Structure formats: C-alpha cells, structure tokens
Amino acid sequence: MILNERDARHEHVLQVARQMMTAARTAPKGKGIDIIEVALITDEEIKQLSDTMIAMVEEHGMKFFLRDADNILNAECVILIGTREQAQGLNCGHCGFATCAERTEGVPCALNSIDVGIAIGSACATAADLRVDTRVMFSAGLAAQRLNWLKDCKTVMAIPVSASSKNPFFDRKPKQETNS
Predict the structure, then answer these.
(1) Contact 156, 84 (CB under 8 A)
(2) What is the domain partition of the chain in residue ranges?
(3) 56 in Cβ contact with 142 (< 8 Å)
(4) Which residue of 15, 23, 126, 132 shows the fewest CB atoms closer than 10 Å?
(5) Does pTM surpass 0.85?
(6) Residue 14 burial class via C-beta count within 10 angstroms: exposed 0-12, middle 13-18, buried 19 and up
(7) Pairing between strand 36-41 and 77-84?
C-alpha cells in the first residue's frame, strides 16, 4: 500500500485537533473548578463563522476581522475554547473589584480568564508538538461567542488548525472591504 500524505492530512489534522481538545480539558484550572468548554468546528461551520466575522465589521469597524474571516477559510478545522462566568470566591481583586460580591455582572472573574489562557496554551503546545499550524484568534472567538456555540460562555477564543507547507495564519495582509 502507498499512502500519500496529502490523502491522510485532513484526518490527521482532525486527530491532532481532538488531542488539542483533550489538552485544553486536562489543563490546570483555578481552584480545580472546571468551567471550560471546548468544541471543534469544520466545513460549513467555518464558513458560518467567517460570515459572522464579516458581518461584525459593520457593527464595530475592526477591519482586521475581514482579514481573519478570510484567513480561517484556510483551516482544516477550528478549535473553540471558552469559559462560563463564575466567581471563584477568593476576593483576590484581580478583576478590579475588592470582593467577588462587588464584581459587576459581565466582568469575568480573573481566574476564569486565566483558565482559558492556560487551556489555550496547552492546546497550542499540543499542536506544536505534533507539528500542525495554529494561531489564537480573538476575532473568530468573539464571532463564535456571538453564535453561542459554547453555551453560556462569556469569553471564547478560536484556534484555526492547518497542516500545509506554510502556516497560513501568519504573514497575512490586511483584507479590504469590497463594495459589491
């Protein structure tokens, strides 16, 4: 049997993405409380995510969403990592409020944000160990949050995943709006 790498690449990338999801799940969590959600999207969902990112540009004017929306179309899949909002009761003040009770609704507990960061780091380290390309994208994460794909998550980041001869998520040029 001869198996060409091109014929096995997509399934390999999906398997790596599954391992990235496991790495995010098993990453250390503040106080040992797991409020992280992780999902993988492919195909039509990537297109839907891209379309949502494009629509969001008209609302907030952040033009880099156009570049990123085009860029994720080069991904084999996209990993979404988010956290639900839940104060951890430490009264640490890292969120900007002296106590958890004083924290305003919608202001994430700092530990929640740290947990997402650690999960992202674990997922990306796994990808690097397995030699697939990634980039953490706030823009795509915000669009996934808008789509509520990770139910009730207040902070979502996206990680597009690819295995090609050159990482498509770096050395990117700004994409201009078209008036068509």
Answers:
(1) no
(2) 24-162
(3) yes
(4) 15
(5) yes
(6) middle
(7) antiparallel
Q: Which two tokens stand for residue 27?
A: 């990453």
69-121 pLDDT, tens digit per residue, is: 999 999 999 999 999 988 898 999 999 999 999 998 888 899 999 999 999 99
Query: What homologous superfamily is domain 24-162 in, according to CATH?
Result: NADH Oxidase (3.40.109.10)
Burial label, 131 (beta-carbon count in 10 A; 0-12, 13-18, 19+): exposed
Angle at alpha carbon of residue 162, lines to 157 and 168, rounded to 5°: 90
Span 3-42, pLDDT tens digits? 999 889 999 999 999 999 999 999 999 889 999 999 999 9
